[in-house]
From TrEMBL:
Organism of this sequence: Sinocyclocheilus rhinocerous
One of the GO BP terms on file: proteolysis
The keyword Disulfide bond belongs to this UniProt entry's keyword annotation: yes
InterPro entries for the chain: Peptidase_S1_PA (IPR009003), Peptidase_S1_PA_chymotrypsin (IPR043504), Peptidase_S1A (IPR001314), Trypsin_dom (IPR001254)
UniProt name for this protein: Zgc:165423
Protein keywords: Disulfide bond, Glycoprotein, Hydrolase, Protease, Serine protease, Signal
GO molecular function: serine-type endopeptidase activity
Domain of life of the native organism: Eukaryota
Lineage of producing organism: Eukaryota, Metazoa, Chordata, Craniata, Vertebrata
SMART domains: Tryp_SPc
Family annotation (Gene3D superfamilies): Trypsin-like serine proteases (2.40.10.10)
Peptidase S1 domain span: 30-264
């Protein structure tokens, strides 16, 4: 039996506001790859300090870029030191599709905690608006209370732990790891403001090559229908692509009000946060064969399970029914 519920606040799942975001006309991806093609991720931003890339970000409208607070240490908040590049594929070769803007304002979340990177979010105000093209588009943002009907996310950036900085924008698909499981792996460091993604066997991850050079601040997105929606911001992890340590991301849906509070000051409409439907497959909760779950101290209303790939997964819906979690056999 399948159960459906929708968090949509309107009859049209893609009202007029939403049609201006999440479009990637040049993205034809079906399976995973390494180098991203030009225009595949048109909201991807490269943040530069004194002429060098140091972090990622995402364009959320014509004037604002979303990034991570950990990219901006307290002694380096002078906005004139930073430049945002959009439409960029290669850091080595310029192309006619890219443009740059100076940063006029940096807003860090007031409750950002460097350890363990809770509320790791920053807003960058561009010096002037940008015009949208096939290579430069804003991403949609996950609305408050959103859950996801896919276990695969996409992360993009230029960081690589093994070979140093990548010159071509990289893309990787990563499975969601539920907060309950991730909290077990990270020894209770994971808060409700975070989400985790990455194969537990390792090998795929967003990376910060060395301090302030890499993927931090970049987007983790999911496709819903024809729209790409940002669910997370690259935040931190244990090493890079290490087994049993998925990447940790700021959960964008927790910050809808805070983002609108600041971005709305210079915009006539609210940002296009996307609501969408979740599908869950019911199963026998007593069937835990070959499922290794860290469940001590957890209190869940319902248990759902299904098979995907070679792994067995147990889907857990918390009592609030807003946190779709996975516990996967190690």
């Amino acid at each position: 039996m399948k159960m459906f519920w929708s968090l949509s606040l309107c009859n049209d799942p893609f009202p007029l506001l939403l049609k201006a975001c999440g479009s990637a006309p040049l993205n034809t991806k079906i399976v995973g790859g390494t180098n991203a093609s030009a225009g595949a991720w048109p909201w991807q931003a490269s943040l530069h300090m004194y002429g060098s890339h140091f972090c990622g970000g995402s364009l959320i409208n014509s004037e604002w870029v979303l990034s991570a607070a950990n990219c901006f240490p307290s002694h380096s908040l002078n906005p004139t030191s930073y430049t945002v590049y959009l439409g960029q594929q290669s850091k080595k070769l310029t192309n006619s599709n890219e443009l740059s803007r100076k940063v006029s304002e940096i807003i860090l979340h007031p409750d950002y905690d460097n350890l363990p990177h809770d509320n790791d979010m920053a807003l960058l105000h561009l010096s002037s608006p940008v015009n949208f093209t096939n290579y430069i588009q804003p991403v949609c943002l996950a609305a408050e209370g959103s859950t996801f009907n896919s276990d695969t996310m996409w992360v993009t950036g230029w960081g690589n732990a093994n070979s140093g900085e990548q010159q071509i924008l990289q893309e990787v698909d990563v499975p969601v790891v539920g907060n309950s499981k991730c909290n077990c792996l990270y020894e209770e460091l994971i808060t409700d403001n975070m989400m985790c993604a990455g194969p537990l066997e390792g090998g795929k991850d967003s990376c910060q090559y060395r301090q302030y050079i890499g993927d931090s601040g970049g987007p983790m997105v999911i496709k819903q229908g024809s729209k790409w929606i940002q669910a997370g911001i690259v935040s931190f992890g244990e090493g890079c692509a290490q087994p049993n340590f998925p990447g940790v991301y700021t959960r964008v849906s927790k910050y809808q009000n805070w983002i609108n509070q600041h971005v709305g000051l210079n915009n006539t409409v609210n940002l296009p946060f996307q609501e969408f439907q979740t599908t869950i497959v019911n199963c026998d909760p007593s069937d835990t064969t070959e499922i290794n779950i860290c469940t001590e101290g957890l209190n869940f209303q319902q248990v759902f399970a299904e098979s995907f790939s070679v792994l067995q997964a147990c889907r857990l819906i918390s009592q609030t029914e807003t946190d779709l979690s996975y516990c996967v056999q190690l």
